């Protein structure tokens, strides 16, 4: 009986302990906190290379040999109540997305243009006899020869100048007044008689029948076709002489950059025939008018050429350097040009990628200057643009950007461009 009572008591105690443990463990389970995280909701899957095609389950892309990427509900900008898109940081890091800060400053621009070397048209002289005569002597000259001012070209006999000389000498011997004498000499000057011959007439008091025509300027002979024994009319050209110091350099530059040229210090002239030469620009000017076909403006530079190192007809290169006014500057790799609009992907303070339309001024040396669209200090994506642009297209951020821009344009009463596809 004692053993039976002992066994029964043990069973009752065990049952009580088991019941207590069950109650305690149930309370512990009921008191446990809820799960700290919940599974993220997937909207769809897509291939980043073909972002406009969506899939309802994960797997391999039918276009590329890569896994489909999930698009989560909490990445949509509507969920955060803000523009732009969010992208998994792991994905952006793996694809090497890089960001640069927009800075403000002048854009350094430079470009090299082909140039041509030509004669100085300000130093251009045409020599004529101005009276009919006979060529007595031609000095040993021809086209291309360099002559100095006063160098003899040809000797002439001109009968028409003999009679006025006779009148002058007769009036002088008979005591004619000064006004009459000066009147005859002036008539000879107007007929083309050289001043040197008039002085000789006055000093020697003898008829001058042989006259020497001389070069009126320094330069190179560009036309000369007379021979001894030829008759010459008063309108025949004896010689054409063109100057070479300073020499002229002609350059055609696009009309879009001509306005940036305002100082000769911007010019660097190089000549392949004289690679060791250093050429100083004496003066320069922008010629009026624009070529209607090439849309270029002509620059004319006068370059010192005392040693005649530059020859007309040579090929030259002119490097033009200029700085724009301060404006927002971004790396050129940050620009997305669709042909109908230009945009960048910016990063806001909360890490969202937001597309923005910009207006480009000019690009140089991997840097692009903007007229408007961004401010100094904003951040733009310079690498991984394809991924960000695909995400923006998928989430509709680009369409909202265009709609917002169009709405602002309508409110301001200005027309806007259509969105690109």
UniProtKB/TrEMBL annotation:
Domain Heavy metal binding: 44-71
Keyword flag Nucleotide-binding: no
Keyword line: Ion transport, Signal, Transport
Residue ranges of every copy of the CusB-like beta-barrel domain listed in the record: 246-323
InterPro entries reported for this sequence: 3HB_CusB, Beta-barrel_RND_2, BSH_CusB, HMBD, MFP_Cation_Efflux, RND_pump_MFP
Segment forming the signal sequence: none
Domain CusB-like three alpha-helical bundle per the UniProt entry, residue ranges: 160-209
GO CC terms, sorted: membrane; outer membrane-bounded periplasmic space
Pfam families given in the database record: 3HB_CusB, Beta-barrel_RND_2, BSH_CusB, HMBD
GO BP terms, alphabetized: copper ion export; plasma membrane copper ion transport
SUPFAM superfamilies: HlyD-like secretion proteins (SSF111369)
Ranges for domain CusB-like barrel-sandwich hybrid: 125-242
Family under the similarity heading: Belongs to the membrane fusion protein (MFP) (TC 8.A.1) family.
Name recorded for this polypeptide: Efflux RND transporter periplasmic adaptor subunit
């Amino acid at each position: 009986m004692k053993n039976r009572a002992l066994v029964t008591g043990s069973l009752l105690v065990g049952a009580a302990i088991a019941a207590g443990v069950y109650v305690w463990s149930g309370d512990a389970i009921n008191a446990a906190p809820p799960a700290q995280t919940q599974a993220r909701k997937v909207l769809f899957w897509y291939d980043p290379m073909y972002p406009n095609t969506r899939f309802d389950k994960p797997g391999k892309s039918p276009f590329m040999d890569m896994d489909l990427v999930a698009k989560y509900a909490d990445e949509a900008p509507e969920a955060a109540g803000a523009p732009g898109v969010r992208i998994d940081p792991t994905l952006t890091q793996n694809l090497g997305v890089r960001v640069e800060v927009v800075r403000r400053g002048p854009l350094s621009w430079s470009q090299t243009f082909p140039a041509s070397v030509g004669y100085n048209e300000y130093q251009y002289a045409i020599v004529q006899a101005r009276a009919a005569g006979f060529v007595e002597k031609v000095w040993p000259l021809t086209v291309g020869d360099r002559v100095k001012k006063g160098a003899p070209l040809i000797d002439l006999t001109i009968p028409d100048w003999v009679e006025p000389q006779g009148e002058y000498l007769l009036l002088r011997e008979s005591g004619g007044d000064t006004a009459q004498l000066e009147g005859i000499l002036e008539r000879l000057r107007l007929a083309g008689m050289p001043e040197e011959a008039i002085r000789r007439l006055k000093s020697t008091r003898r008829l001058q029948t042989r006259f020497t025509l001389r070069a009126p300027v320094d330069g190179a002979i560009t036309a000369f076709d007379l021979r001894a024994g030829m008759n010459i009319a008063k309108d025949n050209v004896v010689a054409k002489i063109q100057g070479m110091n300073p020499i002229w350099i002609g350059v055609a530059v696009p009309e879009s950059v001509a306005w940036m040229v305002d100082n000769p210090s911007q010019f660097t002239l190089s000549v392949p025939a004289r690679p060791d030469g250093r050429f100083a620009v004496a003066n320069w000017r922008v010629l009026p008018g624009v070529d209607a076909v090439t849309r270029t403006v002509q620059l004319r530079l006068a370059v010192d050429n005392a040693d005649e190192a530059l020859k007309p007809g040579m090929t030259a290169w002119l490097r033009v350097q200029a700085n724009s006014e301060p404006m927002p500057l971004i790396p050129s790799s940050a620009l997305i040009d669709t042909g109908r609009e230009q945009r960048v992907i910016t990063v806001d303070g909360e890490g969202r990628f937001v597309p923005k339309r910009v207006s480009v001024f000019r690009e140089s040396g991997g840097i692009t200057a903007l007229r408007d669209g961004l401010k100094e200090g904003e951040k733009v994506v310079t690498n991984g643009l394809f991924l960000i642009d695909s995400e923006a297209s998928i989430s509709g951020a680009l369409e909202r950007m265009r709609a917002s821009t169009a709405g602002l344009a309508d409110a301001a009463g200005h027309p806007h461009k259509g969105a690109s596809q």
